[in-house]
Amino acid sequence: MRTRSVGMVFGVLALSIAVTAASARAGQAKPSAAAGSPLTLHVTCEGQGDSARFRVQIASASDRDTAVLLGFTVANGQVHVVDSSFDVFVIRAATGADEDYVYVNGKYALAKDGVPWIVSIPAGKTYDLELPLKDFISRLNYSSLDISVAPGGRFVLDAQPTGKPPARVWTGKVETRIDRCQ
Questions:
Q1: Model confidence pTM above 0.85
Q2: In terms of pLDDT, which residue wins out, 76 or 22?
Q3: Which of 1, 101, 122, 130 pairs as cysteine with 145 (C-beta 3.0–4.6 A)?
């Protein structure tokens, strides 16, 4: 009986250490730009239900203009479509593991003939865009991102062009924590 109690105490102790470590990691602020990145991010969310949106600000922290590939254009260059270069990682309440939500524009999900959409951000300036939360789809269960789990999550811009980029563009990854939702 005593061996069983000691084993149970060690199990509870191990579980509490794991939960404490996970909480500490989740509370650590990550820098908004990778070391050496010319870009930084700032993300907030606002709205309710289907109107909930991320307000994304991509800033040039460089002393030179920085070009970044954000997606592609369709409809004779009139419509800019953000592709899957944006991800949101949130912690799943049930398991404590990260859940990955990738950005998918449902209206243009099957469009393949678009021209790359490259944005040039002048030194010290910003580029702003809004992205609906409902367009962030879980890679695990294909559900939309819920505004209740977004705050504190990580918002990631992963600028990795497929194939040969049409122009000189910055490639890399930059991330930030999502501020509270309003």
A1: no
A2: 76
A3: 101
Task: Count the domains in the chain.
Answer: 2
**Which two structure tokens, joined as six digits, stand for 117?**
């959409």
Query: What is the percent of the chain with per-residue pLDDT over 70, rounded to a whole number?
Result: 75
At 154-171, the pLDDT tens digits run 999 998 766 666 668 888
Is the predicted pLDDT of residue 83 greater than 50, yes or no? Answer: yes
Contacts of 107 (CB under 8 A, 6+ apart): none
The answer on 162 and 109 residing in a single domain is yes
Instruction: Print burial letters for 62-80: b (CB count within 10 Å at least 16), e (below 16).
Output: eeeebebbbbbbbeeeeeb
Dihedral sign of CA atoms 102, 96, 91, 69 in order: negative
Question: What domain range is 16 assigned to?
Answer: 1-29
Distance CA 13, CA 65 (A): 52
Average pLDDT, rounded, for the chain: 77
Residues 170, 129 within the same domain: yes
DSSP state of 152: T
- Answer yes or no: do 156 and 119 share one domain: yes
Are 70 and 80 in contact, with CB atoms under 8 Å apart?
yes
